Recover the amino acids of this structure.
RNA sequence: CGGGGAGUGGCGCAGCCCGGUAGCGCACCUGCUUUGGGAGCAGGGGGUCGCAGGUUCGAAUCCUGUCUCCCCGACCA
């Protein structure tokens, strides 16, 4: 029974496809206040896995979790000139509370450099207190004009790390460490997303930073998405908040700080990097449901077989979900699991049981294969690794196929119509406006070998140019 | 802020021009039959048409005001 497609095909209208996936895979709804979102259980499940994997890596880098207040005195924001200038337009400010106008207005944090800076100043007395490595999981608010679910919402969830170091060198090393060991490692190995790591052009740095490094990924429409950033803040915030310490020599010194963040935007990136016309495709390493055991009809002992396989999978360390809702037709359930992007679906019905097998369906390739019941759990476990690699390699091949080398601004603009352009940084360093006229930006600057440069003045740097979300 | 569009059951829409107190698809509920690719049939529940006022015997429909949302631009990540 050929019906109309479940989702608007990507090739027809990519933004609409994106919204369709979010709705049909039950990831999120729009909130009542413009630009806010309600993250539904399936979407939140993805976020929880992201949090868990990221948290492990952040802690492995030595940072500890803490929590700072949602409300910040407005005066804090104004202490760092560039910072306040960068964030003022999108601040939500509380002017009235407790039934009266507030003496001192309070902002809802758009990011926490300022409050955390204030407390770092308190906690940093001696060189022995450094480095101070903090992270917090929180919500932040930025009043966005053009909201888009997960990609740019008025309120979003994120992790923000804030650290203070004795030297610029130490801060630099740590900001890079987070970029590589926490962010890139997670995004590449868990999200299966190939990345470009690099520095932002100086004109595009975080408000108040002396260097911004970013992870950039390609979406399936050829546009770029910034998946995370790690900033060196120099001594800008340290000076503004008087974060000082006494050195071994007994001299009062000012610290060097960093900050770094990743948000629920990564969910949007995941959708647009791996999703296809059937829905989401969740990499097994991330998936909170890795296998759906779908009982087709509970006849001839199929129910027992399904239930037993589910148990075996759980025992084998596979995050399995038993779908025994046999009053819902098979086709509906198969489609729903595909929309949700569960890596492997196992179909079990009387026909399979009669042959002592089950049918395994891969979400990445759509391939169906009959497998003996006795080896099913082991096979599925093995598929987890395989699908993880396939998704990553497919995304990498897509990115390569949609990346062109350019040697002039015009060529870069042409290439950026459909994907990424790599162009010598020297060619586009002064072409910000020219690129912007076509909605193209320098996403990041790399060395020729793809590594992250120290600054944009090195020789032979390459700029990745693209349209972006 | 400039230009355009729209507010009608949960969602998507028709009805408005030519006033007569709401209709369709999906979703939902019940029953039966189904179940290996978004099930079929039958029966049912749910809205008073963004809000306020006006015209009229009578307003979703006409008039006035107002609010909100969406799209394009601008602005901004």
């Amino acid at each position: 029974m050929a019906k109309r497609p479940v989702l608007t095909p990507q090739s027809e209208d990519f933004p609409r496809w994106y919204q369709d996936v979010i709705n049909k895979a039950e990831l999120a709804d729009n909130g009542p206040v413009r630009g806010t979102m309600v993250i539904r259980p399936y979407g939140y499940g993805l976020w929880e896995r992201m949090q868990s994997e990221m948290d492990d890596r952040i802690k492995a880098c030595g940072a500890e979790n803490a929590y700072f207040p949602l409300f910040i005195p407005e005066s804090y924001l104004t202490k760092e000139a560039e910072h306040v200038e960068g964030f003022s337009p999108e601040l939500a400010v509380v002017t009235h509370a407790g039934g009266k106008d507030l003496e001192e207005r309070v902002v809802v944090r758009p990011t926490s450099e300022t409050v955390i800076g204030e407390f770092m100043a308190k906690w940093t007395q001696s060189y022995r207190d450094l480095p101070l490595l903090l992270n917090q999981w929180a919500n932040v608010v930025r009043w966005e004009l053009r909201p888009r679910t997960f990609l740019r919402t008025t309120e979003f969830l994120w992790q923000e790390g804030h650290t203070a170091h004795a030297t610029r060198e130490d801060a630099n090393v740590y900001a890079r460490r987070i970029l590589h060991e926490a962010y890139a490692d997670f995004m590449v190995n868990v999200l299966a997303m190939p990345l470009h790591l690099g520095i932002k052009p100086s004109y595009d740095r975080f408000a108040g930073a002396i260097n911004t490094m970013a992870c950039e990924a390609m979406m399936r429409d050829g546009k770029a998405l910034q998946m995370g950033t790690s900033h060196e803040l120099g001594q800008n915030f340290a000076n503004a908040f008087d974060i000082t310490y006494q050195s071994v020599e007994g001299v009062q010194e000012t610290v060097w700080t960093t900050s770094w963040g990743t948000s629920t935007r990564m969910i949007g990136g995941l959708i647009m990097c791996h999703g296809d016309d059937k829905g989401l495709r969740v990499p097994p390493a991330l998936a909170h449901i890795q296998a759906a055991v779908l009982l087709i009809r509970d006849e001839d002992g199929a129910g027992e077989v399904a239930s037993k396989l589910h148990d075996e999978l759980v025992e084998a360390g596979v995050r399995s979900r038993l779908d025994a809702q046999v009053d819902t037709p098979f086709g509906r359930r198969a489609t729903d699991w595909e929309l949700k992007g569960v890596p492997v679906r196992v179909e079990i019905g009387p026909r399979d049981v009669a042959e002592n097998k089950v049918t395994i369906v891969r979400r990445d390739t759509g391939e169906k294969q009959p497998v003996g019941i006795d080896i099913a759990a082991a096979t599925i476990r093995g598929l987890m690794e395989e699908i993880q690699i396939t998704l990553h390699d497919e995304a990498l091949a897509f990115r390569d196929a949609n990346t062109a080398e350019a040697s002039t601004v015009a060529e870069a603009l042409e290439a950026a119509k459909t994907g990424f352009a790599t162009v010598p940084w020297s060619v586009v360093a002064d072409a910000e406006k020219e690129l912007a006229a076509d909605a193209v930006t320098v996403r990041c600057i790399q060395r020729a070998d793809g590594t992250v440069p120290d600054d944009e003045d090195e020789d032979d740097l390459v700029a990745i140019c693209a349209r972006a979300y």
Observations:
- The mean pLDDT of chain A is 94.
- Chain A is about 35% helix and 30% strand.
- Residues 1, 3, 6, 23, 34, 89-90, 142, 144-146, 151-152, 226, 296-297, 326-336, 338, 347, 349-352, 359, 468-469 of chain A lie near RNA strand B (CB under 10 Å from a C1').
